[in-house]
Amino acid sequence: MKYSTAIVGAFALCVSEVVAFPAAAIEYAAKAERDARTNEELESAIASFEKTRRAVGFDAAAHGNDYKVIIKQFEQMFALQPDAATANYDLSVLTPFRADRFQQSVSENPYFFNGAFTGVAVQPAAYTFIYRFMGNKSAEYPEGRLDQETLKSFFSVTGTPGNFKWTEGYEKIPDNWYKRAIGDEYTIPFFLTDLLAAAAQYPKFLSIGGNTGTVNSFTGVDPADLTGGVFNADTLLEGNNAVCYIFQLAEQMAPDVLKGILTDVTRPMDMLTQGITQVLKPYNCPVLQDIDKSQFAQFPGAKGAY
Ligand SMILES: *[C@@H]1O[C@H](CO)[C@@H](O)[C@H](O)[C@H]1NC(C)=O
């Protein structure tokens, strides 16, 4: 159930122009309890929230114990801004944290796979959402300040470093917390700007590929091989190529991910295709008809995970 709602969250990301989670999600939860019609939206809202938490509880499946992983990762993230008076977990903090998590997966998980859909297109949201949504907006910090107490509240963590305690289900918007200003919504183009800024800093984020069965064996697929030459590594960061590459690949790879989780993928795929078409409309992408999936054969972790 959890895994499938996480995927619904990924759809929410792809199909809605404004992704107003997770803060609004929790507000919504209170109102929606008695309103069945909003249940579907609510589920995706909460799934998105779970996804942000997953950024901290990375690779829980590989580690078995969700709870311990969450606390361990939370400790590491928290420690990046140790001074309570000045702490701000913004993207300048979270992007290097994501790079460390990526590296940690490469060095600890022999089956680590960075797929187009789950890895390249959706995973950045798990990090950018933390700051973009949880940051407390004010005149002084129009893009938000995410301090220690706010972070703990959203993640349902209490206690102090070394003694943190995570209580599932007690995520809370702190009192006197201010969401994004009207007109400054976190839109898909805004998200893409964040995604590309992170990739410019850490090109490995765009690298579709994985470990080949042992740790530290990360091998990236050559974009030209994968796409029959429609895209290539040399020009991937030029113009709109990266956005076109990621989202067209995500669309090609999504059915395989979904088949492993849902019995009927038709409707979700329609939504995803529509969403991606919408996202890519302004970008004038080269046409990608097909990809060479045999490129993934070398990655045991790719099975059903892209
Ligand atoms: C959010 O920012 C406002 C303005 O600086 C402040 O009054 C309020 O206490 C802050 N809220 C939280 C939860 O930090």
UniProtKB/TrEMBL annotation:
It comes from the Eukaryota. InterPro entries: Chloroperoxidase, Chloroperoxidase-like_sf. Keywords: Heme, Iron, Metal-binding, Oxidoreductase, Peroxidase, Signal. Residues 1-20 form the signal peptide. One of its GO terms (molecular function) is peroxidase activity. Its cofactor is heme b. Residues 1-197 form the Heme haloperoxidase family profile domain. PROSITE patterns: HEME_HALOPEROXIDASE (PS51405). Belongs to the chloroperoxidase family. This is Heme haloperoxidase family profile domain-containing protein.
